[in-house]
Amino acid sequence: MSNADTLRQLHQDHLSNYNNHEQQAIELMGLLNKLYNQQDVQVTLFGETLNTTSVGQILALHQKVALREQGAKSIDIADTLAMVKALADNPSLQSAQVDVGQLIANDTDLQTALQAINSNDRTVNDATDVVLYGFGRIGRILTRLLLSQASSAKGLQLKAIVVRPAAAGDLAKRASLLERDSIHGSFAGGVVVDDENNGLIINGRFVQIIYANDPSDIDYTVYGIDNAVVIDNTGIWKDEAGLGKHLQSTGVKKVLLTAPAGGEIKNVVYGVNNDTVGDDTIVSAASCTTNAITPTLKVLNDEYGIENGHVETIHSFTNDQNLIDNYHKADRRGRSAVLNMVITSTGAAKAVGKALPALSGKLTGNAIRVPTPNVSLAILNLNLKTAPNSADALNDFMRKVANSSTWQSQIAYTDSTEAVSTDFVGDTHVGIVDAQATILTDNHAIVYIWYDNEVGYSTQVLRLATQMAGISYTQIPA
C-alpha cells in the first residue's frame, strides 16, 4: 500500500470513528434530557455539565477531561453512554446529581452506588420561583445560565426580571442585550418579545418584565409569583434596611445579594461557609474575587497553614469606571478604563476572613483594573507554616484538589504553557490555578488563579440560590 493510500485509509478510519462518536453523543443527549425533565437528575463529567443541546461540546469535553491522573487516557463516550443508560433504567432515582466521570474513573459499580444511598436521603424538589432584580452584566449571565438548561418543572424557575421604568422600546433593547453579548457571544436559544404581556419568551419560557423604582412597591403575586427568591444584582442596597425592602413586597421569601454586604448580613462563598446560612432570609454571595480565591486559600490553609499573605488582583474593568476621563467619586476610577491600568482598592482579602475565619486579619489586598472586559487574575503571595518540597509538589497537590469530587466543580487546574485570559471566558469554575506560574521559595508561595469574573461568579450565585430555596440533590457517588 502506497503512502497516499495509507494516509487516505487513516483519514477514513478517523472520520468513521468520529461519526460513531457523534451518534453516541446524540443518543446521550436524549437520555440526559429525559433524566433532567422527568427525574430531576443532573449528570456531570468530573463536575462539568454535559450540554444537552451540543454534540460538539460533549465530544470536546470527553477529549479534554481525562481520568484526572497524569498519563491517563480520556474517558470514552461509550463508557459515559453506558452509564447514563443504566441511570435511565432506574426510574426511582429522583433529584440527584450524578458524576459519571468519578464513577468510571474509580471503577464504581452504579448499582452499588445507588444501593449505598440511604432511602431517607432521597428528596423530591419542588419548583422555586426566582426573580432577578436588575438586568446588568450579572443579571444577564444568570438569565443565560438559568434558561440555557433543558426545561424542567422543578428547581429554580426564572419568573420575572425587575428593571427601572424606561421609555418605549425598552423590551426590544433588553432582548437584544440578552441575545448578543460582545464577550460571551450569541445566546444559545431564542428570545421573543411579548409586548402584549410585557415580557420575554426565552427558550419557550415566559419571563415577566416588571418596572419599579422601589422593591417594596411590588406585589409579585399579581404575576403568579409567590415564595420567590429574589437575586438582587443592582448593587444599590447592601444592608438590611435596603435589602429588607424586598421582603416587604408581596410574594418574596428570601433575598440574595450579588455583592459584598455590610452589617450583620452573612457574606457566603459556596463550598466554604454556606453551611452557616441556615434560615437566613437575606444573604450575600460576596464578590467575584472573594469567591475566586477563598476555596484555594482554604485548601492551602488546611494542608500547609497560612501565616499571612497579600492578594493582588489583576481585574478586568467594570461598568463603574469611565470609558474616557471624567468625574468619578472614587480615586483613580475616573480615568479612562480602556486606556489605563488603574490601581484601586479591593475588599476581597478582608472578606476572605468573613468566609474563612481562620484567615481573618492575615491577608492584605489591592487591585489593578486593566483594559480587558472580562476574566481576571488573582495572585496569592503566601507565607506558609509548613511548605511542600517544591513548586511541583505544590502543583501536584492543587491538581489532586481540582480533580477531587469535593472541589472539582469550583477549582480547576491548568498547566498549559500557552494559556491566556481569553481561554477562560465562559469557564464555570470559580478559580483556575495556573501551574506554570507557581513559585515556591522556602516557605513563601506565589499562586496564580484565573477566573471569569462574570460566569464563574454567577455559577456560585446559583449554587447559593439553590440552597436558599431548599433545593437539594443526592450526590452520586456520595
From TrEMBL:
Domain (Glyceraldehyde 3-phosphate dehydrogenase NAD(P) binding): residue spans on this chain: 128-288
Organism: Psychrobacter aquaticus CMS 56
Family: Belongs to the glyceraldehyde-3-phosphate dehydrogenase family.
Gene3D superfamilies tied to this protein: Dihydrodipicolinate Reductase, domain 2, NAD(P)-binding Rossmann-like Domain
Coiled coil (UniProt feature): none
PANTHER family named in the record: GLYCERALDEHYDE 3-PHOSPHATE DEHYDROGENASE NAD(P) BINDING DOMAIN-CONTAINING PROTEIN, GLYCERALDEHYDE-3-PHOSPHATE DEHYDROGENASE
One Pfam family hit: Gp_dh_N
GO terms for MF: glyceraldehyde-3-phosphate dehydrogenase (NADP+) (phosphorylating) activity; NAD binding
Its EC number(s): 1.2.1.13
Keywords, in A-Z order: Oxidoreductase
InterPro entries listed in its UniProt record: GlycerAld/Erythrose_P_DH (IPR020831), GlycerAld_3-P_DH_AS (IPR020830), GlycerAld_3-P_DH_cat (IPR020829), GlycerAld_3-P_DH_NAD(P)-bd (IPR020828), NAD(P)-bd_dom_sf (IPR036291)
Protein name as it appears in the record: NADPH-dependent glyceraldehyde-3-phosphate dehydrogenase
Lineage summary: Bacteria, Pseudomonadati, Pseudomonadota, Gammaproteobacteria, Moraxellales
